[in-house]
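Shipment paperwork, digital attachment
Item: protein structure file
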Amino acid sequence: MVRLCVNIDHVATVREARKGREPDPVFAAVLAELAGVDGIVCHLREDRRHIKDRDLRMLKEVVQTHLNMEMAATDEMVQIATDILPDMTTFVPEKRQELTTEGGLDVVSQMDRLIEVISELHAHNIVVSLFINPTIHQIKAASRTGADYVELHTGEYANASDIDKMAERLDEIASMAIAASKLGLGVSAGHGLD
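Attachment content:
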């Protein structure tokens, strides 16, 4: 089944650039739901550069579809997730210097930590996804963590310079989606898809 979830981080980025209260990402989420989206995604970063704690708390109260909280695998973020109880969390890598998430989580090198935090979130009935590059070794590692889903990073597809490269990237994503599904993982895709 195809579902469309809308990430509202850029609405918050504009608000922060204007140093004001508008545009309000919570209002944008309500409008997106009224327009028919299947879910709302927001990334509460450790540095709070766009989405704020207040936004997340209000989103939990008003979102009627599906709330997916993107986050780093830190103790602070896990605590916030277990307090807020979003429908889903997606673990993403974070680097302070990046403007937006530039690549997928390295599940292989963070296996033990991810197993621990996924278990904690599952204890609170929160569905867990891992944002990864579409490679077989990351998908196999993700399947060993206990995660429910993987989100395949589509940045190379979205930024491809010509139609042939786009087709190659799309084929890679499709084959990795099939591989993840065969390993029992739900699959979503995102990043740079406008």
